[in-house]
From TrEMBL:
GO molecular function: FMN binding; oxidoreductase activity, acting on the CH-NH group of donors, NAD or NADP as acceptor
The name this protein goes by in its record: Flavin reductase
SUPFAM superfamilies for this protein: FMN-binding split barrel
Stored Pfam families: Flavin_Reduct
Domain Flavin reductase like: 18-173
PANTHER family: BLR2425 PROTEIN (PTHR43812), FLAVIN REDUCTASE LIKE DOMAIN-CONTAINING PROTEIN (PTHR43812:SF2)
Organism name: Salibaculum griseiflavum
Top-rank lineage group of the source organism: Bacteria
Length: 202
């Protein structure tokens, strides 16, 4: 099968996000200029550079009370900071609860019963029990073609790692089972890892 996105795929459901999988989930926490905390998951998320460490996430929809975007992007525009929290399988239901298009006055930490902690290098909350959290300062926001397609880039200024995830000096993802997004409403859990040695490292 071949299709041109502009012409439509002719299938019952859009296959695009099912093709680009699995995708890590960035559980983005922010604090609005009004002091209201926000927490929302984004599956268009990834690390993009080592030195300095940098990450990105993309928001692809809007809420009526946020002038063409969502709470996360609006808060970051106002404050210039955000945190990325790693999502473990055990937190799947709480993460899903925070994906709702709640009013901008709703604190998703409270709504979903998630413990929060303060970041060290930025004025922003983080998920207290997350396997890892990355404190980030905004570097740029880019608007992409299409309605409400916005990419946020940030430099990591602080890194939190849960002690039980550190094994022999390495961050061990098998200690917490990362949750990843597939297509449609599907997710997967990472329970198995294996090494491959690059040819120039042999």
């Amino acid at each position: 099968m071949f299709y041109r996105p502009g012409d439509g795929h002719g299938l019952p459901h859009n296959p695009f996000s099912a093709i680009v999988t699995p995708r890590p989930i960035g559980w983005i926490s922010t604090r609005g200029a009004d002091g209201v905390d926000n927490l929302a998951p984004y599956s268009f998320f990834n690390a993009v550079a080592y030195v300095p460490p940098q990450v990105m996430f993309a928001s692809t929809s809007a809420k009526p009370d946020r002038d063409g975007t969502k709470d996360s992007v609006a808060n970051i525009r106002d404050t210039g900071v955000f945190a990325v929290n790693v999502v473990e399988y055990a937190a799947r239901e709480a993460m899903n609860q925070t994906s709702g298009a709640w009013d901008k006055g709703v604190d998703e930490f409270d709504d979903a019963g998630i413990a929060k902690a303060e970041c060290e290098t930025i004025d922003c909350p983080r998920v207290a029990d997350a396997p890892a959290s990355l404190e980030c300062r905004l570097t740029r926001i880019i608007e992409l073609p299409g309605a409400a397609n916005i990419v946020v880039f940030g430099e990591v200024t602080g890194v939190h790692m849960r002690d039980d995830c550190l094994v022999d000096g390495r961050f061990d993802v098998t200690r917490y089972t990362p949750l990843a997004r597939l297509g449609y409403r599907d997710y997967t859990a990472v329970r198995e890892v294996f090494p491959l040695v690059r040819p120039d490292d042999a």
